[in-house]
Amino acid sequence: MKASGNRLTREQARELLAKLDSAIAGSRGRACRDAMVKFLNTTIPTYSWVGIYAVQGKDLVLDAWAGPAATEHTRIPIGKGVCGFAAKAGRTEIVSDVSKDPRYLQCFMSTKSEIVVPITGQGAVIGEIDIDSDQLDAFSSLDREFLEAVAKKASNVWA
Ligand code: SME
């Protein structure tokens, strides 16, 4: 199933979680994160670029990504950018129009909106999922719910 055109529906989100389970079955750590970013990027048309960053000391370090191009932001200090803000606050950030958010660090000219979802383990932020969309206002509270469930799965097999 491909989530069509615009925003996710609840039913699509449920189906996608089941398909993701099959896509990552038996994998752990980096291999699992590679499978996750690939799955999200190829299955959901509005998820134009998908990355997972891992916390290393005071920085976020790019660990796995899928999309048309590499980003220059492979290391982001916690507190900097939308990514660093979400990691510091420990909560999901949705930016519906990146051109209006002064925290935004640009990776791609084509990006219009972004969601960053922290991955927590034993009460601390250990990483995060970062998704750029070429569509304005691409992320709803359903994407948040869906991606928070994905983040939990990533946390369960993090090491
Ligand atoms: N836009 C992010 C930086 C990471 S790139 O989107 C891959 C930010 O503002 O933190």
Main β-sheet, in a few words?
A: 6 strands, antiparallel
Overall mean pLDDT score? 95
Strand content: 25-35%
Radius of gyration computed on alpha carbons:
14 Å
Helix content: 25-40%
Terminal CA distance: 30 Å
Widest sheet, order of strands: 3-2-1-6-5-4
Overall geometry comes to globular
Q: Which parts are unreliable, with pLDDT below 50 for 5 consecutive residues or more?
A: none
Structural class: alpha+beta
Heterogens: methionine sulfoxide
Encode the helix/strand succession as letters: HHEEEHEEEH
Please tally the β strands and state the result: 6
If helices are DSSP runs of H or I spanning 4 or more residues, what is the number of helices?
4
Task: Describe the protein's topology.
Blueprint: H1 10-24, H2 29-43, E1 49-56, E2 59-66, E3 75-77, H3 81-89, E4 93-95, E5 113-121, E6 124-133, H4 141-156
Antiparallel strand pairs: 1-2, 1-6, 2-3, 4-5, 5-6
Helix pairs in contact: 1-2, 1-4
The structure holds methionine sulfoxide (SME).
Structure description:
This protein is α+β, with helices and mostly antiparallel strands and 159 residues long. Helices cover 35% and strands 26% of the residues. The protein is built from 4 helices and 6 strands. The protein has a 6-stranded antiparallel beta sheet with strand order 3-2-1-6-5-4, with helices on both faces. A hairpin with a 2-residue loop joins strand 5 (113-121) and strand 6. Helix 1 (10-24) packs antiparallel against helix 2 (29-43) and helix 1 (10-24) packs parallel to helix 4 (141-156). It is globular and about 40 Å long. The mean pLDDT is 95. It binds methionine sulfoxide. Methionine sulfoxide binds at residues 51, 71, 73, 76, 81-83, 104-105, 107, 114, 130, 132.
